[in-house]
Amino acid sequence: MPHHLLLIIHLLGAAIWVGGHLVLSIGILPEVLKKKSPELLLNFERKYEKIGMPALVLMVVTGIWMAYNYGVGSSQWFHFATPLECVVSLKLTLLLSTVLFALSANIFLLPNLTPKKLPIMAFHIICVTLIGVVMLILGSFVRYGGAF
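The line above is the sequence of Copper resistance protein D; the predicted structure tokens follow.
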């Protein structure tokens, strides 16, 4: 698959993932916290998950594929020897953080979400949103060879 097509798919996934989390953090979460309504959050979650999770999967697949296209294979991950290795390694670290937040939310919070647990859920949401924005910014440095 041509690199440019991979990039387009990756960017569309990022638009859905980061955009959805920004809508959730800025548009939905304040109302959820104000009304102490887990149901408002769960309604958004059910709708967003149908497009958000496939977008995340597409970003992972295309991101790894593009890293290989740039010559940063799995044997170079987490070595931080070159600027591109740094970007790829940081993005993979942030991806792992996102997965850990998702597991925590899906195992401990969402199954029995109560008004009392909403602040903890809000912390998860804000962290995943900030991680997504940082990953987007890091990805922009690839255009310049990974140099910050």
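Note on the example: Residues 131 and 137 are 10 Å apart (CA to CA). The two ends are 28 Å apart (CA to CA).
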